[in-house]
Structure formats: structure tokens, C-alpha cells
What we know:
The protein is α/β, with parallel strands linked by helices.
Amino acid sequence: MNTIALYPGSFDPITYGHLDILERATKLFEKVIVTVAVNKEKSSVFSGEERIDLINECLRGKTWARNVEVNKFKGLLVNHATKMKAKTLIRGVRQISDFEYEFRMALTNKRLQPSVDTIFLMPDEEFTFISASLVKEIAYWGGDLSSFVPPNVAEALKAKYSGNQ
Ligand code: PNS
């Protein structure tokens, strides 16, 4: 049985919702690789390295994260999965509206690489409405980020958006 899973995403930036999904995944797989997509680096607020650093900071000292690795990829996700010897992709589904896009993506990945499956996990109810784009909007307008992202991410967002208003 292959027990390496890849948890891909933009993570621009990582939120409490992502962390909830990641923690759930660590209980199901021996190793979970969080992999940051850098295909659209220019349109993201944080660079690939910044996003990786923020994720690693969030995971520091967490016992459940002992089987987590963080890296980045460019190009097709399934090629990265093959390189990482991962047979499973993890995606979080917060609500039905996420599902159509996720279903299309999972089927596309399956067509490209039939040996790789996608598993969908639901976050805790309290995180179902959190998204990185909403978090960036709140940061832009100087709102309270404390229930959406960990403190290090809130600080990084504040620094990015300082002087914007
Ligand atoms: O956090 P996101 O932005 O919803 O993550 C989407 C992501 C990065 C996982 C997806 O866009 C992706 O896998 N991009 C890499 C290119 C690719 O493999 N495309 C084919 C599958 S749709």
C-alpha cells in the first residue's frame, strides 16, 4: 500500500481551513507532502518561498505534523506526484459549490495519470467559509484576521498590505 499523499494548493496564504485538512490527512497517511503551486507566481501575493516558510512556521512544534513535508512544484501536478512517489492527492471541499471545480480537476488528473487518485476531505464546520482570497480582502482593508489564519500569517499579510488603504 502506498501511504504518501500530496496536498497541493496555492496556499497564498495558508489558512486555518488548510491546516484543518492537513491535520486530518496526517492521520490517514504515513507521509503527507504539502506542495505549493508556483505556476502563477506573478499573480500571487506571496512568493513560493514565502508561502513555504509560512507553512513551515505554522507546523513548527505541532506533534501531528511530524509526518509532513513541504515543497513546491511548477507544471502539472500529476508529474510532481509521480516524482514524489505519491499515489493520492488530497483536496479540501468546503461546500457543494467547491465540488464542481474539484470534480473536474480530479477527473483531469485521473485522465493524465490513472494511477493517482484524489481524496476529498471536509474541514471542521467552523472553517467551511474560510478562503485565502477572502483572507486577502480582509487584510487589504485592515480587518481582524485572528480567526482565519495563524498569527505568523496575519503578520505577514499585514506587512504585505501595510500602506494600501
Ligand atoms: O489552492 P488552489 O488554487 O485551488 O489549487 C489549485 C492547484 C494548484 C492544485 C491546481 O491548479 C493545479 O494542480 N495546478 C497545476 C497544473 C495542473 O496540474 N493542472 C491540471 C489539473 S486541473
